[in-house]
Design a protein that fits this description.
Low-confidence stretches: none
CATH class: Alpha Beta
Bound molecules: coproporphyrinogen I
Number of strands: 9
Oligomer: single chain
Length: 339
């Protein structure tokens, strides 16, 4: 029964027999079977087909007893519904980056039929294939993180074109974020209807602006999106990356779970926000060093963080060169904790 799904119990801050564990980017390149599939199919082909996406989503669960499945797709997957074309090399590359108001105006009205139907179908197929007690997670990119790619054109260190756009064309930015916010709220609700138990909003590039500019330019759109999803009754996991200066601001957004990277003291976040669950936050770099280092980091995390409302995860995506033994060690520590 869904009420026994550990991730959902932790989201509600109910007692659990052990802490739930899943891993950001758990279906990625550290898995040899994923690398084999990538020899045959491009990332776009894998994520663009419901059958292949389901197959890849299930790969990490075949190897490890993880408590959640997260659909193998990208934050860009729903953007064709706004008339946006892109490719991957290896990250997203946008065909026509948005650099002015005309670029925003050129977006099409939301085309519901193009709102990643392959992801919606993959959610249904995955739900049918995973154990009853495993949670199914949907996700999307936060409006600002999506805008980062749309304006910059691709992932670039510190996103200077985006920051100049925000400083000089705040009205165009606001219209862009409003469109993305509305589209992503619809997308997340569709994912929940297709079987997602909870949704994670990835704000990977949250930290690029000052607190004052974030409050003024970004918060209203992120807040609106989260509120719309919350009104539909869907549990929300909000992940921010590289944004310690915004931690308090994000803590006031409507989300059941605050998911943080390794730069943040997660025990402190938990202590200061007693009504929230927390997710994270082992530094993925530590897993590169092998099982013993991973085991030590995992034990330290469990010792510092109250189990009530704690979903164990890394502080960002697992790195491609991570040895499989490190993941075994992480699973072992979490599964054998006594409390
Ligand atoms: O388990 C999983 O792998 C889940 C699927 C997943 C998710 C949740 C992928 C597959 N991407 C994402 C989200 C995503 N995509 C984020 C948010 C999470 C994060 O911060 O890591 C971001 C920022 C992206 C953008 C993106 N897409 C990047 C980042 C690098 C850049 O240039 O900015 C990359 C490399 C991609 C392509 C991509 N998406 C996913 C994979 C496995 C890949 C690599 C494709 C490959 O070479 O096989």
């Amino acid at each position: 029964m869904s009420k026994d799904r550990l991730v959902l119990k932790a989201i509600r801050r109910e007692p659990t027999e052990r802490r739930p564990l899943w891993i950001m980017r758990q279906a990625g390149r550290y898995l040899p079977e994923y690398r084999e599939l990538r020899k045959i199919y491009s990332f776009k082909a894998l994520s663009g087909s419901a059958e292949l996406s389901t197959k890849v989503t299930l790969l990490p669960l075949k190897r490890y007893p993880l408590d959640a499945a997260i659909i193998f797709a990208d934050i860009m997957s729903p953007l064709p519904a706004l008339g946006i074309n892109f490719d991957f090399d290896p990250g997203p590359v946008i065909e026509n980056p948005i650099r002015d108001q005309a670029g925003v105006d050129a977006l099409t009205p939301l085309d519901l039929e193009k709102l990643a139907p392959e992801v919606i179908e993959a959610l249904k197929q995955t739900r049918a294939a995973i154990p009853e007690e495993t949670s199914l997670l949907g996700f999307c990119g936060a409006p600002w993180t999506l805008a980062a790619y749309l304006v910059e054109g691709r992932g670039v260190k510190d996103f200077p074109t985006l920051r100049a756009f925000a400083a000089t064309q705040p009205e165009a930015l606001s219209m862009l974020l409003a469109k993305l916010s509305e589209a992503m709220a619809t997308y997340l609700i569709n994912q929940a209807h297709a079987g997602a138990d909870a949704v994670q909003v990835f704000d990977s590039w949250a930290g690029l602006l000052s607190l004052g500019n974030w409050e003024r330019l970004i918060r209203p759109h992120l807040q609106k999106m989260l509120e719309t999803v919350g009104e539909a009754g869907i549990p929300r996991i909000l992940f921010l990356q590289n944004a310690p200066h915004l931690m308090e601001a994000y803590s006031s957004l409507p989300a059941e779970v605050l998911a943080v990277d390794w730069r943040v003291d997660i025990a402190d976040v938990q202590a200061r926000h007693e009504n929230r669950a927390v997710q994270g936050n082992i530094d993925p770099a530590i897993l590169l060093h092998g099982a013993a280092s991973t085991r030590a980091a995992a034990k330290d995390l469990l010792q510092r963080v109250n189990p009530k409302g704690h979903i164990v995860n890394l502080g960002h995506g697992i790195l491609p060169k991570t040895p499989l033994e490190s993941v075994d060690a992480l699973v072992d520590v979490v599964h054998n904790e006594k409390y």
